[in-house]
Amino acid sequence: MDESSLQLISGIGAKLEQLTRPSKDVIVKSLRKVVSVLSQIEQPSVVEVATKALVVGKLEDVTKPLRKSIVKHGLSNHTDKDVRLLVAICVSEFFRILAPQPPFADKYLRDMFKLILSMFMELADTTSAFFSRRVKILETVAQCKCCVIMLDIDCSDLILEMFNIFFSVVREHHQQSLINDILSIMTHILNEEVSHQLTDVILRNLVQESKGATSAASQLAASVIQSCAEKLQPFVCGFLTSCSLDRDAVGSELKEFYHEIVLKLFQCAPEMLNAIIPNLTQELMTDQVDVRIKAVNLIGKLLLRPEYRLAQRYHALFVEFLKRLCDKSSEVRVTALQCAKACYLANPSGIESHELLTAIEDRLLDFDDKVRMQAVIVACELAGSNLKYISSKLISEVIERLRDKKISVRKKALQKVMEVYRDYCNKCAEGHITMCDHFEQIPCKVLMLCYDKDCKEFRSQNIELVVAEELFPVLLPVEERARHWIHLFSLFSPLHVKALSAILSQKRRLQTEMRNYLAIRKEKENSSEDMKKKLKSSFVKMSASFPDPSKAEECFDKLSQMKDNNIFTSLGLLLDEVTLKNALVIRDKFLKVIGDKHPHFEFLQLLSSKCSFNIFDSEHVCCILSLISTSGLGSNNLEAFSIELLLVIISNFPSLMRGSELQFRLLFEEKYLIHDKIIQVLAKVGSHISVNFSDFYPVLKKICLEGTRTQSKYAVSAIASLIDVPKQYVFTELCEELVDSLHSGQNIATVLQSLGCIAQYSVSTFEDLDQEITQHVYKNIFQAKSLDDLSVTEDSSGCTVTCKLKIYGLKMLVKSFLPHRGSQVNRQINPLLGILLKMLQKGDMFDNIFSCASDKAYIRLAAAKSVLQLSRRWDLHISPDIFRFTILMAKDSSSFVRRLFLDKTHKLLKEHVIPIRYACAFTLATSDSLKDLQHDSFKYMVEFIKEYSREARIRQTSMSQGGSIMDFPAYIVVFLIHLLVHDAGFPSEDCQDEAMYAQFCGPLLSFLNASMNSSVVDGDLDLVNNAALYLNYIFRAIKRAKDAVDAQRTPRLHFLADIGISAVNSLHRNGISSVCTLGTILLPSSLYKITPMESEEANLKFLTQSFVERVVHVFKSQVSLPVGSVHKRGRKCHEDGTLNMVLGKQVDFSTCGALETHKRSTRMETSSGRRRGHVVPPNALVSIGSHNKGFTEELEYGASNSSEAALEKRQPFSSSGSVTQKPSQMESQVSTQKFERSNALKGNIGAGKIINAEASNSRKVKFNIASKELPSANEVLIGQRIKVWSTFDSCFHSGTVDDFNPENNTHKITCDNGEVEILCLDSESWETISDCSLTEREVVPSDKANTLHLRQCGKDTLDKFRGDANQQSKTKLNMEDRKFRSRKVPLSEKRKKGQILSRDLSSVSEIINIDEDAVAKRTRRRKL
Fold first, then answer.
1. What is the dihedral of CA 99, 104, 110, 113, to 10 degrees?
2. Bond before 969 cis per omega within 30 degrees
3. Tell me: the pLDDT tens digits for 112-131?
4. Dihedral-angle region of residue 1227 (phi above 0 means left; psi in -120 to 50 means alpha; beta otherwise)
5. Which residues touch 571 (CB under 8 Å, ≥6 apart)?
6. Over the stretch 252-309, which tens digit does the pLDDT of each residue have?
7. Which of 68-82, 484-498, 707-721, 846-860 has the lowest mean pLDDT?
8. Strand, helix or coil at 1084?
9. Mean pLDDT of all residues belonging to the chain
10. Are 569 and 556 in contact (CB under 8 A)?
11. Which residue, 266, 275, 270, 274, is CA-closest to 245?
12. Which region, left, alpha or beta, applies to residue 376 given φ > 0 means left and ψ of -120 to 50 means alpha?
């Protein structure tokens, strides 16, 4: 110590002490000198106590004057900041140099500490010029530990204030030494004494960060707790325990931050919570939801510190935490999911990670949609964080949420799984992971959303955008995309392929229509009405590809009015650009030019996407071909799938193959023997690529001769696609070689397939060699005897080689009568039908040929399937016997025949390519002995009723002239009753056993039961009411008819009709509505004959009404629809049981008398045969008609004697006439007209004549038929339902013909999906859907007395007419004798190929009886 310094301090102190009121300047000047000197004085460090006491005593003496002057003048409370700062420095220095003795008396120390605390309060201002001096004061106070003195002088309030000051002034940017000094002071205090108040301050600041304060205070509090954990633990644990046991009893406001405090304490001093954490288990189980949520959040955060191994140390707590994922509160479950995710991400390899994943996976099936949505989010985020090791089961469960019952969950699942799949694709491209099935399942499931009819967001229009723009990362290379497509395609089911094809087909249709629209815009006269109609039609078609068609159509309309063609120029460029990379550049430039301010920016953004090849482009095709040819896929299995994918692509966009012809040709030569689909690819793209026919023909020819049957089928198709009209001789040469090969016996199966396919593509070629081919098949194949060793079979089918060849020969003949492209067959189908009938009856066509039971079963099955196929086009020629034996395949002795036949029938009915009467097979099989077959039959029947009922109603309401009752499933009872009447198992006449009758009538009653069950049609009571109405009228109509095949069976007919009426009344609880009535019920004239008869003649003596009711009761007590046969989901059931649909004019069916009519046969003097027509007008409750639907003459090789006799006379088995019975309160008589067709038919049918018949007491009726020119065959299609074959989609598109334009010979067709097509049906393959075989009319009373007016009942088509060109039809009416005769109807002598005969006879007789020659047929499948 320097003596001069000490004297200076003493002198300044004495001087200030002498002054009475020193000025500020004097004080500041004096204290600055003192501060400067005091900072140089070191604290005595003498070891000897005596020496140290002397030194301290000396310092006390030296500083005493100054200390006295500070107290005397109250400088500690001076108002000037400079003075106070200098005084505080002096005081802190006094504490330092005089320690351990306090520099002031106790009564003055409080003021001194308050002065120091005031300096601490300014520490937050780091920019102040005095900040360093204040830091020095803090440092000095910390070093000398003088704050402890406050405990001695009972200044607890100042200590509490100091703690609060420290927490309030500490900042993150403070230097660590400052924070250490603060911590040191606080630690010294707490080590001496801890209070509840100080604990509260510390804990409050510990959670300050969560309340928005600075984190420095929280960090300081944590540091204090860490430093004084032992001292604070009793107070902290006491507080936490009180909060845990009874929080309401705790007075501190900190109880609201109880969980935050626990978390903070766990982070800084976890050992303090050893006694607290177990108590959290009780909080997880409390009844208060908010407490459980906080507890879950807390434990979730505690688990984020894996180093503390909380789950292992407190396993019971962890188990209870997992249980909160199943909490009764959805809010708790959502919180638990979020916490579980955080826990897993913190330690994915931890022991508890598996349990967490399992618990999360379970929540994907939670009953609350919010929880499921959160589970999807959590699972996808977990998958994205660890794609390589994530559970495949978890991914599968997440994908399943795409089918969630809540749309919101589906949307979120779609968004999240797309993110996961894009991450997966990037990782695969980077080489971090390899392709795996469970991730490739994501796009598979996304495609399946196309089948979701309940949500418009997931229709194919939206899924197309998802697949095009969200499936892959934008920058993912095309080769990587191709690899992913091939891999995921290997996981496709037929439904996936169908969904992808539907999306591509939708995209293709829009692009095609957009090209047409752009071409229309370029035409000069775009203001005409015709042009406006074209534009409107184009807009409707294109709008069908958008999520909101009506809005899209409006946008199209507005865009078309724009004069700026830049938009359409850019769209044209997009349509022509077949590479994705360039298309993206064009699209981005296009959108940038129009700008997001454009009123239709969003629509144009969407339209430009749909116009681009952004799902598949030419580079995709090139990459796929390259991967196949270079074996870059590493698997033959993937090669096969890649070819199938290629087939799907080019089926919709064959132009994408352009530029890859050479690569494809090389691939074709290398792989065609391995992959049959390559040949099919060639068949698809043949007409769209530039290749030399000679490069492919040698290989295709070899395939037709030596390949497999499948290969030969596609090879013929490929040849047809590669050649043009001038090269048709190719088929002739090929056919001749095939015939030579057939005679030589080489590869007979393949040769037969090739010949059948050639017959479909080139009818003339096949017909040139028809006789030679057919005779060979009859003689060498059909008459071939089975091998001696019947165990010699082909493959594992159980069928001998000889049997196989017979089936192949039959298929070839059937194909020859089903040509493509609307070609006309000029051959007789009678021999083939005769063969089919014998095969159906005997399992072979010749009695002297011995075949094993298995072969016979296969032949019967092949014959039945052939009938089904022929019914597409030749249904008019299928006789009742053939139909009956075909349907009886459902009751065949062989179970596999029954199974395969029912499956085939179901498939064809589902495709709407065969008449509905074949659904009778399902009803017969509902009593099958095999439970699974019985169940499937019920399922097929239910699906048939549901689908066909809805479609029939749509046709009925959408067609301008209404639908036909024959479109509804109920109409099959007309054929089902015929089958039962002629069933050999019909109970004998003396049988009075109700149970036996109930069992026999099971097929009929089962069908009625399903038809009356509202759950079958998803609760649609309108359809049920319709079915009940139709069935009631049909049964009543049948009761007025006789069996046309065997009149002696008529009592059975009427008994079954009574059963039907009783069953309908019993099963339909709402009763039959009388609001809507039917005017005419048409019955097939080949099955039913309507003639006057006595009522007693139609009834069995003992079959009373009560017996009938007992039979129905027995059935109802034993039979019900099987569980699972009906879909549960569907639209809401209507409560109103009345019929809302107008089915026709309401007619009074009360009878006032009976009218008699007699039938008179008229003969066609043609070489092709004769037909009989008959008409009987009854006095019935309903109007009955007999029509030629489905059944016509039985031709050669018929089984029955009657049919053979008819054929010998060239006379048809049954009449093609339509017989209609009409009810009225007045006695009426109905006329019949027979239109006999000549071999050549062209143009419109001749005009009718006026026929008058005046009513009299002798029951003569005067008919007034106005003379009117009948419409053309093209015009009569208007209002009909047809199907048009799409070569791109390889399927039919259904629609309604709305209009015909004679100028360009085109029809306007509105498809069921909303699209509108303008087609020339002469160049399309199409077929009618309606089951009406002819144009049928009904007579209804008009307002004028004694005059009958006509209205159209239904329409159908006739495919082909043959006969003498000079032949004329004759139809005469003898009104005096009330018998129907023939009168002449002039027909054109010139044949028009593919002409459809269908008339709008709105003013002609409502009964039409058309005699057709032996080869005439009703066209269900019409190809032009």
1. -40
2. no
3. 888 889 888 888 888 888 88
4. beta
5. 514, 518, 590, 607, 608, 611
6. 777 778 788 888 888 888 888 888 888 888 888 888 898 899 889 988 888 888 777 8
7. 846-860
8. strand
9. 76
10. no
11. 275
12. alpha
Distance of CA 924 to the CA centre of its chain: 33
Q: How many CB atoms lie within 10 A of CB 870?
A: 25
Torsion sign over Cα 1031, 1035, 1040, 1045 = positive
**Longest alpha-carbon distance in the chain:** 163
pLDDT of 467 higher than 90: yes
Q: Using an 8 Å Cβ cutoff, are 138 and 123 in contact?
A: yes
Angle at 327 between CA 322 and CA 328, to 5 degrees: 170
Residue 90 and residue 66: Cα distance in Å, rounded? 9
Long-range contacts of 931-936 (CB under 8 A, 24+ apart): 933/895, 933/898, 933/899, 933/902, 934/1122, 935/1122, 935/1124, 935/1125, 936/899, 936/902, 936/903
What does the alpha-carbon distance between residue 1413 and residue 1164 come to, in Å, rounded to a whole number? 8
In angstroms, the Cα distances linking 324 to 302, 306, 357, 896 are 15, 20, 14, 54
Cβ count near 891 (within 10 Å): 17
Long-range pairs for 486-489: beta carbons < 8 A, 24 or more residues apart = 486/624, 486/627, 486/633, 486/638, 486/641, 486/642, 486/645, 487/435, 487/440, 487/638, 488/440, 488/441, 488/443, 488/444, 489/641, 489/642, 489/644, 489/645, 489/648
* 1158 SS3 class: strand
Question: Quick check: 1187 pLDDT over 50?
Answer: no
Task: Give the Cα separation of 364 and 394 in Å (integer).
Answer: 9
Burial 777-789 (b: 16+ CB within 10 A, else e): bbeebbebebeee
Q: Cα-atom radius of gyration of the chain, to the nearest Å? A: 48
Pairing of strands 1358-1360, 1316-1319: unpaired
Query: What tokens appear for 931 in the block?
Result: 């439970």
- The contacts of residue 638 (CB under 8 Å, 6+ apart) are 486, 487, 490
Amino acid letter, residue 865:
K
Q: Based on the number of CB atoms within 10 Å of its own CB, is 30 exposed (0-12), middle (13-18) or buried (19 or more)?
A: buried
Contact 892, 1306 (CB under 8 A): no
Distance CA 1097, CA 1341 (A): 30
Among 181, 227, 175, 177, which residue's Cα sits nearest to residue 202? 227
> Are 1409 and 1217 a contacting pair, CB within 8 Å?
yes
Coil, helix or strand at residue 13: helix
Q: Which token pair is 44?
A: 């005595």
**Nearest C-alpha neighbor of 91 from the set 29, 137, 41:** 137
Runs of H (alpha helix) within 818-930: 830-842, 853-870, 880-887, 895-910, 920-925
**CA distances (Å), origin 388, targets 423, 427, 1071:** 11, 9, 64
Strand (E) or helix (H) holding 919 = none
Q: Which amino acid is at 734?
A: L
Place of tokens 């006799």: 1205
Locate 548 and state its tokens. Answer: 């909101």
Residue range 871-907, pLDDT digits in tens: 999 999 999 999 999 999 999 888 889 999 999 999 9
The tokens describing 1012, both together, are: 């009356």
DSSP code for 993: -
Joined together, the tokens standing for residue 260 give: 């935050």
* HEC profile of 267-334: HHCHHHHCCCHHHHHHHHCCCCHHHHHHHHHHHHHHCCCHHHCHHHHCHHHHHHHHHHHHCCCHHHHH
Strand-pairing partners, residue 1316, are 1310
Instruction: Give the percent of the chain with pLDDT over 70.
Output: 76
Put residue 192 in one of left, alpha, beta given phi > 0 → left and psi -120 to 50 → alpha.
Answer: alpha
Which residue do the tokens 């002490």 mark?
17
